[in-house]
C-alpha cells in the first residue's frame, strides 16, 4: 500500500510530519560552477572545506588530530572554512553536521572502512604523490580460502617490468588495522605510490607486495559482533588464528602457484599496523622458518592479547635472532591505543636480548603519519643482501 500523504494517525489524532524530513535534499544552484560548493586544495597548500547544507544549524570539520574548526554559512547555504598552509600529506577528516558525523559527499575519496565515516584529501608534494615514474601493477585478486571456507580478496602489487618470466622476487605481506578494509593500505596508506617512488629512486629492492584482508569474518570472529571492551579478550585471538591459517594454507601457496616468487624465508616478510601489527607478530614469530623479516607498526602485542605460540617463540631468543634478518617495532610517542602493548613488547625484547630495531615518532598518536613513514623506512631495509 502506498502512502499518498504525509500524515500519521496516532491514538486517534492526526499528526503532520515535518516537511523537511520528506523533502528531497537541496542541490547546489545549477547556474554556478560546482567548485564553489565543494572542498578544494589551494595552490599554497591550504584546504578550503565546503559543504552545501542550507538546512543545517551548525557545521564543523575535524581534520586529523587538529581541533574541530567551526564552519560559517554563506548566503547561498554553503558552509566553509579555510585552513592554514599544511605540509604535503594525505589527511583524513569528517564533518559534524548538527551532531551527525558525515563524510564529505562533495569529494570522491572516502577512507576505506567497514563503517565509512571519514574522507581523505591529499596536499601534494611528498612521497605519497603519483609521480611521473614507472608504475607497478596493482591487481585485486579473488580466491577461495580453504582455511576459512569463503571467498576472499587481496591486492597484489608487482613492480614495474615484472612478467611471468621474471626472476623470482621476494614477497612482503602487508596487513591493515582494525575497522579498515583490504583497500586501506592502497587508498590511505598509499603503498603503491610509496613503492613506485622508492623504486624509481633505487632505494628499495624490487618486490611483490600482498595486501590481505586482516579481518577474516569467520563466524567466531566477526568484528561487529564484539563490544569494544571485549575486543582484545575475544576478537583479536580468534581472528588472528584464522588469518594465520589463511596466510600459511592459502595465500602463500597461491602466490607460489601464480607468481614468480622466492620460496626461502629470507624472501618473505610479514608487516602490519595496529591489529595488523599483532597479525605480523603472530604469523611472523609462529613461523620462523617461513618468514625472515617481521615488522609491527603501533601493533597490539601479547602484553594485552596473549598468544601461546608467540610467547613460546619469545622464550627462545637465540632461535629468533638466528631466523630473523630484521625485527622492527615502531610507535607514536603519544599513542594511547597501543602504548602499553608496544612498551610491553619492547621490554620483553630487551629483557630476552632479542635483536630488534625500535623507532618512536615524537608527538604522534595512533595514525598514518606513523605508519606510512614506518613502511617507507622498512622497505628501504627489507630484502637487502
UniProtKB/TrEMBL annotation:
MF annotations from Gene Ontology: acyltransferase activity, transferring groups other than amino-acyl groups; hydrolase activity, hydrolyzing O-glycosyl compounds
Alphabetical GO biological process terms: carbohydrate metabolic process
Entries under Pfam families matching the protein: CBM_48, Esterase
Keywords: Signal
Domain of life, per lineage: Bacteria
Signal peptide location: 1-21
Domain (Glycoside hydrolase family 13 N-terminal): residue spans on this chain: 43-99
InterPro entries: AB_hydrolase_fold (IPR029058), Esterase-like (IPR000801), Glyco_hydro_13_N (IPR004193), Ig-like_fold (IPR013783), Ig_E-set (IPR014756), Mycobacterial_A85_antigen (IPR050583)
Key word Phosphoprotein present: no
Protein name according to UniProt: Enterochelin esterase
Amino acid at each position: 500500500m502506498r502512502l499518498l500523504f504525509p500524515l500519521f494517525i496516532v491514538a486517534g489524532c492526526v499528526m503532520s510530519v515535518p516537511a523537511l524530513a520528506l523533502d528531497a535534499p537541496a542541490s547546489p544552484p545549477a547556474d554556478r560552477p560546482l567548485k564553489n560548493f565543494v572542498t578544494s586544495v589551494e595552490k599554497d597548500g591550504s584546504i578550503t572545506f565546503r559543504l552545501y547544507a542550507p538546512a543545517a544549524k551548525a557545521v564543523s570539520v575535524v581534520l586529523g588530530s587538529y581541533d574541530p574548526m567551526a564552519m560559517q554559512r554563506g548566503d547561498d547555504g554553503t558552509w566553509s572554512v579555510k585552513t592554514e598552509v599544511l605540509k604535503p600529506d594525505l589527511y583524513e577528516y569528517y564533518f559534524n553536521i548538527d551532531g551527525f558525523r558525515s563524510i564529505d559527499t562533495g569529494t570522491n575519496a572516502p577512507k576505506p572502512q567497514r563503517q565509512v565515516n571519514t574522507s581523505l584529501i591529499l596536499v601534494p608534494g611528498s612521497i605519497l604523490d603519483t609521480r611521473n615514474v614507472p608504475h607497478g601493477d596493482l591487481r585485486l585478486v579473488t580466491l577461495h580460502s580453504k582455511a576459512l571456507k569463503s571467498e576472499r580478496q587481496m591486492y597484489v602489487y608487482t613492480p614495474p617490468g615484472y612478467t611471468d618470466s621474471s626472476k623470482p622476487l621476494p614477497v612482503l605481506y602487508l596487513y591493515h588495522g582494525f575497522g579498515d578494509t583490504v583497500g586501506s593500505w592502497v587508498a590511505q596508506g598509499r603503498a603503491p605510490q610509496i613503492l613506485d617512488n622508492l623504486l624509481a629512486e633505487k632505494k628499495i629492492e624490487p618486490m611483490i607486495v600482498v595486501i590481505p584482508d586482516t579481518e577474516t569474518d569467520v563466524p567466531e570472529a566477526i568484528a561487529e559482533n564484539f563490544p569494544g571492551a571485549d575486543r582484545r579478550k575475544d576478537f583479536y585471538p580468534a581472528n588472528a588464528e584464522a588469518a594465520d591459517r589463511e596466510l600459511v594454507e592459502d595465500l602463500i601457496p597461491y602466490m607460489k602457484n601464480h607468481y614468480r616468487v622466492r620460496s626461502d624465508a629470507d624472501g618473505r616478510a610479514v608487516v602490519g599496523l595496529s591489529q595488523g601489527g599483532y597479525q605480523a607478530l603472530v604469523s611472523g614469530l609462529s613461523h620462523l622458518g617461513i618468514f625472515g623479516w617481521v615488522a609491527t607498526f603501533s601493533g597490539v602485542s601479547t602484553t594485552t592479547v596473549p598468544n601461546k605460540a608467540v610467547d613460546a617463540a619469545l622464550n627462545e631468543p637465540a632461535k629468533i635472532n638466528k631466523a630473523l634478518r630484521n625485527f622492527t617495532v615502531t610507535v607514536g610517542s603519544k599513542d594511547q591505543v597501543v602504548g602499553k602493548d608496544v612498551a610491553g613488547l619492547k621490554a620483553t625484547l630487551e629483557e630476552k636480548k632479542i635483536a630488534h630495531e625500535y623507532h618512536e615518532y615524537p608527538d604522534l598518536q595512533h595514525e598514518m603519519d606513523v605508519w606510512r613513514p614506518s613502511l617507507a623506512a622498512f622497505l628501504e631495509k627489507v630484502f637487502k643482501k
